[in-house]
Design goal:
The structure is a single chain. With 204 residues, the chain is of the alpha/beta class. The protein has one domain: Dihydrofolate Reductase, subunit A. 31% of the residues lie in helices and 28% in strands. The chain is built from five helices and ten strands. An eight-stranded mixed β-sheet has the order 5-4-3-6-1-7-10-9. Helix 3 links the parallel strand 3 and strand 4. It is globular and about 75 Å long. The relative contact order is 0.21.
């Protein structure tokens, strides 16, 4: 083997080593789509409202609130669409001021807290930004169209649904139009006293 060939192989090995170190230091974030949905698969009614959730006072149930608090403590990044962010704007306060958050929107919206970043970037670019910050687990809050775009990009690792026992008939679907049909594996399910059923699926 001549010296040029050895040099090429050596450089290739160094490059592979650097890539390996980078991946070990900043692994791809695990993205979890966690949302409440009606039994017929809608996350909001035809007017974009979620008032129907008030009929199921889950946060008065200590078991439900405890599980949700545990989930909140499990992620270190948040991704959501502009219309989902509108609910926070109406409330006037951001629920996770200590968590880096990305709002994917083309609209000019108010920034409720310095931890929030408004962006027009693609899911792939946002995922790279989160990876660069060392974020390990991300709550994809919705809505359905944004979830579909992350699904199409192959970035959703897990889906957690709180299935509320109500039929809306029409509204904003759980998942928007998507080009993929991923297989899902049920990993956990739990029923609460208020009739809500929580299910967790791994995206294969």
């Amino acid at each position: 083997m001549d010296s040029i060939a050895r040099l090429i192989i050596r450089r290739a090995l160094i490059a592979l080593s650097l890539v390996s170190k980078r991946l070990s230091l900043n692994p791809m974030p695990e993205i979890v789509y966690h949302v409440a949905t009606s039994l017929d698969g809608f996350i909001a009614d035809k007017d974009g409202k979620v008032d129907w959730l008030n009929d199921f006072p889950s946060f008065e149930d200590s078991e439900v609130s405890g599980d949700f608090e545990a989930f909140q403590n499990s992620f270190d990044g948040i991704v959501l669409g502009g219309h989902t962010y509108d609910f926070a704007l109406d409330y006037g306060q951001w629920m996770s001021p200590n968590t880096p958050s990305w709002v994917l929107t083309k609209r000019e919206l108010s920034v409720l807290h310095p931890s929030i970043q408004l962006t027009k970037e693609s899911p792939e670019t946002v995922n790279q930004q989160m990876e660069g910050k060392g974020i390990k687990r991300v709550w994809l809050m919705g809505g359905g169209k944004l979830a579909a775009s992350f699904m199409d990009a192959g970035l959703v690792n897990e889906i957690q649904l709180s299935i509320v026992p109500i039929l809306l008939g029409q509204g904003i679907p759980l998942i928007g139009e998507t080009s993929k049909e991923p297989k899902l594996t049920l990993t956990e399910n739990k029923q609460y006293s208020n009739g809500v059923v929580s299910v967790t699926y791994k995206v294969n």
